[in-house]
Fold this sequence. Notes:
Udp-n-acetylmuramoylalanyl-d-glutamate--2,6- Diaminopimelate Ligase, Chain: A, domain 1; 2 domains; 9 helices; six-stranded mixed beta sheet
Amino acid sequence: MKCEELARTLETLLDIAHFKDYCPNGLQVEGRAEVVKLVAGVTACQALLDAAVERSADALLVHHGWFWRSEDGRVTGVRRSRLKTLLEHDINLLAFHLPLDAHPEFGNNAQLAKQLDWTPEGRFGAYDLGWFGRTRETLPLNEVARRVAEALERPPQVIGDPERPISRVAWCSGGAQDWFEAATALGVDAFLSGEISEHNVHLARESGVAYIAAGHHATERGGVRALAAHIAERFGIDCEFIDVDNPV
């Protein structure tokens, strides 16, 4: 499949024009014209680039790409090494940030609902990135945390009474700790995100709403993995998801 066609299809599917993001979405680095082998991962780090080279990939699909608004724009040091790897091996880089958090089927938050067996009831926040709903059954917080650890393959950091009954939940993948107060206003028992900040601990203790910090990386594996599976099924492209471990 032509990379240009693949990029255009994904850009339409994920409705990138709807988002004012912190980085460009879509094709970030152009490589060879045809895509037969695609490697997918959460972040376009050097380890993932090297894995793509080892597998003779034509394209790399990630959630966290490059050219962030807050970064130094000079191509030196680590940035030079990463870009050099792609250009030398003629590999395309496709990246989708907020659009891949928000998508109702392939998005990170949609996939979290599936992984955790939670029933979505609505959405909140900018671009409807945040989700809220219910657990399949009312469970104490410590059991919810255990199931989160099992589903996401890492123990979360949990603030709250371990015995508190949890049935109404809100969640937003990645670094959504600033959305905690908005989530508490929804009347939920617990909020799950990837990260937690110091002030969130106090709000959790004082509001009684539990906070589950399940890992930025861990909460954002689902979207790119689901999108890669869709690409493989729809276009017959050989897609392989590679998980470069990240404890954060």
